[in-house]
Amino acid sequence: MSREARWNALLELVGKNGRVEVEDAATTLDVSAATIRRDLDQLAEQQLLTRTRGGAVAHGVSYELALRYKAGRHAPEKQAIGRAVSELVAVGEVVGLTGGTTLTEVARSLAVRSDVVGDTAAAGMGGQPALTVVTNALNIAHELVIRPQIKIVVTGGVARPQSYELTGPLASGVLREITLDVAVLGVNAIDIERGAYVHHEGEASINRLLAQQAQRVVVAADSSKIGKRAFARVCDLGQVDFLVTDKGIAPEAEARFAEAGVTVVAV
């Protein structure tokens, strides 16, 4: 298991139980106790948890929102997609993230990437952040704001309790004034003929603007969303550079996306 995967797993355990014990975590993750101690020390340095004599406890930050938000189907697929998307982002880039359970996993994977974490000390001393994340998702901002290596820009706007996303003219106004290296879109459906969709027209408008302001666009969607349509259209496939999904994508669908100029990454 990679360090990034262990860190995500440890944070999940702390978020779920409020604490984690070294020996229990070592057994659960099938690694040595020394490895867990080292991981917990490094996570504590990032202020993501507080070390105790035998393990660690939650660091005065509420994990409830993120855990509640994550609950849903296809969790392992979404975690794999999150890791794959994070590999498409280079250190120093400005990344736009929409909301959604899959995008939450993208944010978590970005935050624990070894080359991003390696810039923690420099960021804490006033240096340049390893990444700049622009998001309209309250839960993603909530998770990333305590990570010193990542600069967080929140759009503003009116919050939707169903998705924790900010929408409306305040959000649009901010996005029109910035540029992005990459926009990562979480969608409710993606259709080969018509493009990407979400359920709410306000979210579709913000997603569309993120895509317009970016040099490249990544759609992150598990295979259950492929070949479907939802209420509000975000963009057509001509604006999408990458589709990151799971191995449940049908071969014929993958071929048709490729024909449309979309690079498919199936994990």
Features of this protein?
267 residues, alpha/beta, 7-stranded parallel sheet, 3-stranded antiparallel sheet
The rough form would be described as globular
Report the biggest beta sheet as strand number plus sense, adding barrel if it closes: 7 strands, parallel
Oligomer: single chain
Strand content: 15-25%
Low-pLDDT residue spans: 61-71
Q: Helical amount among residues, as a percent range? A: 40-55%
The span between the termini is 16 Å
Q: C-alpha Rg, in Å?
A: 18 Å
Work out the helix count.
12
Strand segment tally: 15
Mean pLDDT: 90
> What structural class is derived from the secondary structure elements?
alpha/beta
The strand order across the widest sheet is: 6-5-4-9-12-14-15
Order of helices and strands: HEHHEEHHEHHHEHEEEHEEEHEEEHE
Structural overview:
The chain has 267 residues and is an alpha/beta fold. The protein contains 12 helices and 15 strands. The chain has helices at residues 3-17, 22-29, 33-45, 64-70, 75-86, 101-111, 114-117, 120-124, 138-144, 169-175, 201-212, 251-259; strands at residues 19-21, 49-51, 55-58, 94-97, 131-135, 150-154, 158-160, 165-167, 180-186, 189-191, 195-198, 214-220, 232-235, 242-245, 263-266. The strands form 4 sheets. The chain has a 7-stranded parallel beta sheet with strand order 6-5-4-9-12-14-15, sandwiched between helices. Strand 7 and strand 8 form a beta hairpin. Helix 1 packs across helix 3, helix 2 crosses helix 3 (33-45) and helix 5 (75-86) crosses helix 6. The longest helix is centred in the first third of the chain and has 15 residues, at 3-17. The protein is globular and about 55 Å long. It starts with a helix and ends with a strand. The relative contact order is 0.11.
